[in-house]
């Protein structure tokens, strides 16, 4: 059994494309079959190597590894030519020389009459030898097929015109190449977006003219933005790699994507192997799904919370490098990540939280320091006590803070808040004694001194 993902390399890997790929990949794994990656690059003007790379990067970041391919349609032109010739020889296709002008007039006339604009078959019986090649679509009867998602679909052949299968320069068009490839590559389930559902009856006619057996079809409903319009850049990031950049874990995005259009009871969190185990084509939703950034963020946080530190580190490596955070001196990365795991919605947030442990800063948040750095006495006393502390662990640090509170008869807030600001620079830190332990004695003392300097400078 084989399924495939067949993107056109005319942009980055879109969220919708990634969901199609995930469903096709899952279906192949579920059947213990093969997942084929095919790059549909016949549109030479719009296809770019950069998009091919973006698609391959996106797929590999998501972990949707292909078993066969990537195949490139531009490498298969001879095969398409052979099939186009066969269709011509068997009188299932013909050359058409109708000019653009004639076709435009025809379209205008039909539209004016309120009819569907379609080719009138003018060259169908002319036996010409050049021009574009059109497929001889049957004139009568119906094309009926059962879509695994949409159910039974039936279209009258009189609705379908003779589609162009080769341009005048001989290059093949999508509907021809997709049929040849799905046949040659032994694809038995075609899973794709429902923007292609109108092409399916035409493709079925091609299969039939070629005497090939049909694959199963499953057309996935669209993904909509929050306003009900088709998901696009207007709604925020739509490129898969933008989600990597924003600090999402690939498995969180996959989990989110599978739920966009498929459900298994009320369950929200699925591991990839669970998805493969539970997935059925019949459970794909018929209605379009709305993309909900909040829910994705929630899932990401859930995944971060429950991930192993080692797994987080693997995914953090790119971000640390990207943000040039040097972690070679400072506390063990594992401890810092474990500390931040509960409080980070994204890996970007986590890296932000990591910086205070590995990077010094030279100023404090302005607003917070004006409010919290007023009284030098508690910080001074804490500095004295911590300087004398030998065994630099959270519990001991906590004891020192408590003693400051007792000796000065102040509440914890009076020392906790300024201490947190002194350590972090921005007040953004968790459990203060653990933070201080991780920041380390040297840096803690330096930062306390820096806070005291700030108070001295601003006290007049
Ligand atoms: N290359 C087509 C696209 O990117 C997909 C074709 C198909 O899946 O049949 O829209």
From TrEMBL:
Gene Ontology MF terms: ATP binding; glutamate-tRNA ligase activity; tRNA binding; zinc ion binding
Enzyme Commission (EC) number: 6.1.1.17
Residues annotated to bind ATP: 233
Motif ('HIGH' region): 7-17
Primary location group: cytoplasm
Alphabetically ordered keywords of this record: Aminoacyl-tRNA synthetase, ATP-binding, Cytoplasm, Ligase, Metal-binding, Nucleotide-binding, Protein biosynthesis, Zinc
Subcellular location per the Swiss-Prot or TrEMBL entry: Cytoplasm
Reaction catalyzed: tRNA(Glu) + L-glutamate + ATP = L-glutamyl-tRNA(Glu) + AMP + diphosphate
Residue stretches making up the Glutamyl/glutaminyl-tRNA synthetase class Ib catalytic domain: 2-298
One Gene Ontology term, aspect cellular component: cytosol
BP GO terms, sorted: glutamyl-tRNA aminoacylation
Aminoacyl-tRNA synthetase keyword on record: yes
Motif mapping: 'KMSKS' region: 230-234
Function: Catalyzes the attachment of glutamate to tRNA(Glu) in a two-step reaction: glutamate is first activated by ATP to form Glu-AMP and then transferred to the acceptor end of tRNA(Glu).
Entries under HAMAP family matching the protein: Glu_tRNA_synth_type1
Protein name: Glutamate--tRNA ligase
UniProt source species: Candidatus Thioglobus autotrophicus
Gene assigned in the entry: gltX
């Amino acid at each position: 059994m084989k399924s495939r993902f067949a993107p056109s390399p005319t942009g980055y890997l879109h969220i919708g494309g990634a969901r199609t790929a995930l469903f096709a990949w899952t279906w192949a794994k579920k059947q213990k079959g093969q997942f084929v990656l095919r790059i549909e690059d016949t549109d030479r003007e719009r296809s770019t190597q950069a998009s091919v790379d973006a698609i391959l990067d996106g797929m590999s970041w998501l972990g949707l590894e292909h078993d066969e391919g990537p195949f490139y349609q531009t490498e298969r032109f001879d095969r398409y030519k052979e099939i186009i010739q066969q269709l011509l020889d068997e009188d299932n296709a013909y050359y058409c020389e109708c000019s653009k002008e004639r076709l435009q007039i025809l379209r205008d006339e039909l539209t004016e009459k309120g009819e569907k604009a379609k080719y009138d078959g003018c060259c169908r019986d002319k036996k010409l030898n050049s021009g574009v090649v059109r497929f001889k679509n049957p004139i009568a009867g119906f094309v009926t097929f059962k879509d695994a998602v949409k159910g039974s679909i039936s279209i009258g052949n009189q609705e379908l015109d003779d589609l162009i299968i080769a341009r005048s320069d001989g290059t093949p068009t999508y509907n021809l190449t997709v049929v040849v490839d799905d046949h040659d590559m032994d694809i038995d389930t075609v899973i794709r977006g429902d923007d292609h559902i109108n092409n399916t009856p035409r493709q079925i006619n091609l299969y039939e003219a070629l005497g090939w057996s049909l694959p199963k079809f499953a057309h996935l409903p669209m993904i909509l933005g929050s306003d009900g319009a088709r998901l696009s850049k207007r709604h925020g990031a739509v490129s898969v790699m933008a989600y990597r950049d924003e600090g999402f874990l690939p498995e969180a995005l996959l989990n989110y994507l599978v739920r966009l259009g498929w459900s298994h009871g009320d369950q929200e969190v699925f591991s990839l192997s669970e998805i493969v185990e539970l997935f059925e084509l019949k459970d794909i939703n018929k209605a379009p799904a709305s993309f909900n950034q909040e829910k994705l963020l929630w899932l990401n946080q859930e995944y971060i919370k429950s991930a192993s530190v080692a797994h987080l580190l693997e995914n953090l490596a790119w971000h640390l490098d990207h943000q040039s955070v040097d972690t070679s001196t400072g506390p063990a990365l594992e401890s810092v990540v474990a500390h931040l795991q509960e409080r980070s919605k994204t890996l970007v947030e986590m890296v932000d939280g990591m910086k205070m442990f590995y990077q010094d800063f030279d100023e404090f948040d302005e607003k917070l320091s004006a409010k919290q750095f007023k009284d030098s006495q508690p910080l001074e006393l804490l500095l004295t006590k911590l300087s004398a502390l030998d065994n630099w662990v959270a519990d001991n640090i906590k004891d020192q803070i408590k003693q400051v509170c007792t000796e000065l008869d102040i509440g914890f807030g009076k020392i906790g808040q300024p201490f947190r600001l002194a350590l972090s620079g921005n007040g953004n830190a968790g459990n203060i004694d653990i933070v201080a332990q991780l920041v380390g004695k040297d840096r803690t003392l330096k930062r306390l001194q820096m806070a005291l300097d700030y108070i001295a400078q601003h006290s007049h």
